[in-house]
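Task 17 of the worksheet. Students: predict the tertiary structure of the chain below and write it out as structure tokens. Keep your answer in the requested format; marks are given for formatting as well as content.
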Amino acid sequence: MGYVVIPSRSGAAGVLLWLASDPAPSGLVEKVDMVFIESIFGFFSHDLGIDLGTCNTLVYKRGEGIVLSEPSVVAVSKKDRRVLLNGQAVGDRAKKMVGRTPGNFAAIRPMKDGVIADFEMTEAMLTYFVGKVHNFSNLARPRVVIAVPSGITEVEKRAVKESAVKARARKVWVISEPMAAAIGIGLPIDEPVGNMIVDIGGGTTEVAVISMMGMVYSKSIRVAGDELDEVIMNYLRRQYNFIVGETTAERVKMAVGSAFPLDEEVSIEVMGRDQIKGLPRSITIRSEEIREALKEPLDQIMSAIIETLENTPPELAGDIYANGISLAGGGALLRGIDKLIHKETRGIPVHISEDPLKAVARGAGLFIEGIEDYDQYLDSGDDDG
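Model answer:
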């Protein structure tokens, strides 16, 4: 005599069967202990922390750390929006197709400015990533913590949760990205001390002052890595009548981009298309000109940092001046960004976190690792689980 849970393909909790020679007791299914069902799904699943980024999605598996880091891209057929390769054209596979697909296919980035721009494709992407982490087991229904920008609306937050549920998550919490980043880099956010985090991601820059597990002040702007790439594309088109795609612009940013004068300036040769003649050609680009092109979006990021400091209570501001500002996210890797912030804030120390690209995912993962301890904060302004 015993129980078997058969998961429903529709994503429902499942069907409970009574294994015995006699009929099931009256009302058994209605009275089944949900703790038992939870334990069954828990046996086949791993709790996950997810950084659902505009450019990249990272997944932290409880007990193992970050096990997946792939581009937030899905390749589909334009005719019926069917994900190519039998639903497998997601992440790394889809990224290779960006700018290289024939007319009847499209490589879609379902996240824009840190929020869901295409609900259906976000669901397909999450389903693939969650499945990949669980070796595509049909029995996997994990508990999930997802990091989201601090400035998103309740409607946008609900869309993230619904996408995760449709991707077979059985329970979903959301945590703000600056809070996750702060946890991920080990700031003492549970102490009565001012901690300042600047997380420069792909779609948004998150600036926050955190104390006692709460955000004292935060600022979220939709200017980040993607905007820097776009500025580079526009500069090359305007200055050289030279057209490049997103991938090349990102490569230029990583190779010669900077926020502050370099000790030794560098250059790179780039292949693209002549806007006037329409033919392929190459040009050499110097770090000085890319730095000048990036000035406007970097000024917007600096304005967000200054505004946050101006709205920080004096005692916490003193802590920040003493302990410094912590940088996370891919934008923290831009050459000289720490020196620029140090200069513009008139001497506040700036620290680039170790492996800043993984800070948010690591924080979401540590949150799920200690979910029982953090449970009291789930209904706060940072998390409405």
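Marker's comment: Residues 225-240 form the longest helix (16 residues). The chain has 15 helices and 19 strands.
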